[in-house]
Amino acid sequence: MRVVSLVPSLTEAVAVSAPGVLVGATDWCGHPADLDVTRVGGTKNPKVDGIVALAPDLVIANEEENREPDLAALRAAGVEVLVTEVRDVPQALRELARVLDACGATARPRWLEDAEETWSSLPPPQRRTTAVVPIWRRPWMVLGRDTFAGDVLARLGVDHLYATHEDRYPRIPLDELRAASPDVVVLPDEPYRFTADDGPEAFPGLPCALVSGRHLTWYGPSLAEAPGVLSEALRAAHR
Length: 239
Hints:
Elements: E1 3-5, H1 8-17, E2 22-25, E3 38-39, H2 48-53, E4 58-62, H3 68-76, E5 81-84, H4 89-102, H5 110-120, E6 129-132, E7 134-136, E8 141-142, H6 148-155, E9 158-160, H7 174-179, E10 184-188, E11 208-211, H8 213-217, H9 226-236
Parallel strand pairs: 1-2, 1-4, 2-3, 4-5, 6-9, 6-10, 10-11
Antiparallel strand pairs: 7-8
């Protein structure tokens, strides 16, 4: 089996669950750290000819992270493409199982079982808080409706204030974000790399939680530890 992954989180999931089947991955696929495969460009601008040259049995992609014209070009070249859709945690777990099965994983990985158990056994949040969740600046963009990251936060008791916006990732002026007066501003380190010196200064007087983007937005082995990692970062913002 020869697989090319165009999604960083799926790359990690396949690499640790079906060793040896990956022959290509994007430049952004940084996990596992020792992954040694051919790099095929970015998630939004993959090298279609390079992928075809690898003669993959399957390319795995995501309807949000990858562009349909690139996937159509791969199909036109005779490459089978599996496209995932992930909008919430249960769907992520189902899609991961589907991807691993398609990639020839011989057994259900322990990390997937741990993730299912972790998320199904979460205690009800003791309190709910409101948040805005920027994912970019210049211009400011935040989580909107129907997002995986929004569902992750909701299950941890955090309701982001643009969950009913008509756009999934709306552009919102900074003044409006401040005026929304959330209980906390959640600042992930991807896709924009917010840091202690780049992000919190835009929200004076508001608690800011610097969180791992891998745990907030990735669906893969990190799902098993995501509730604990994110909950600790959220608690730290209020200390």
